[in-house]
Design goal:
By secondary structure, the protein is mostly helical. The protein contains one helix and no strands. The longest helix has 21 residues, at about 10-29.
Length: about 30
């Protein structure tokens, strides 16, 4: 998961935000 690269952090944040959006969309419906 974490290879020690600092560039992995922004990617995780992007994935997290996408998951958050999907969860909020599910809550709406």
């Amino acid at each position: 998961m974490y290879n020690g690269h600092r560039h992995s952090a922004p990617k995780q944040i992007l994935v997290f935000s996408q998951i958050k959006l999907k969860i909020s969309n599910l809550d709406i419906s």
